UniProtKB/TrEMBL annotation:
This is Uncharacterized protein. It comes from Methylomonas koyamae. Gene3D superfamilies: Cyclic phosphodiesterase (3.90.1140.10). SUPFAM superfamilies: LigT-like. It comes from the Bacteria.
Length: 129
């Protein structure tokens, strides 16, 4: 939803406190498009349907982060599922769209482990419905 830069302990505590006030009712996304993102060299699925609720959540989280002077990545939010990294060129193939129900959101930490990126969930907030 929002890619954060370095966060100190005080900012993290306040970020978690403010995230508790968000009223997210869940969302359903249909990942129906195969995309190649050249700069990060990834092949991913993206969604062209169901973006309103997750875009609103992303905007709320962005406002909270900026209000706490947390550096964020300013690229526009694009819901996606990464399929392959370090790919050289686009792939054209048929696939069945995937529908995914977002039943909450979380704060995750990106950790590099032997050159592989992993995400560790620090806290979760379930949707209200």
């Amino acid at each position: 939803m929002v890619f954060l830069g370095t966060v100190n302990h005080k900012q993290e505590r306040e970020l978690r406190r403010r995230a508790n006030t968000i009223k997210f009712h869940g969302a359903e996304l249909t990942f129906d498009r195969l995309d190649f993102w050249q700069k990060p060299s990834i092949l991913c699925l993206t969604s062209t349907d169901g973006l309103t609720a997750v875009s609103e959540l992303s905007e709320q989280l962005t406002r909270i982060s900026k209000g706490l002077d947390i550096p964020i990545d300013n690229r526009p939010f694009t819901p996606h599922i990464t399929l392959c990294r370090k790919i050289k060129r686009p792939l054209d193939t048929e696939f069945e769209p995937i529908t995914w129900r977002a039943t909450g959101f979380c704060l995750a930490e990106s950790v590099s482990n032997s050159g592989r990126r992993q995400y560790r969930v620090l806290e979760e907030w379930p949707s209200l419905s």
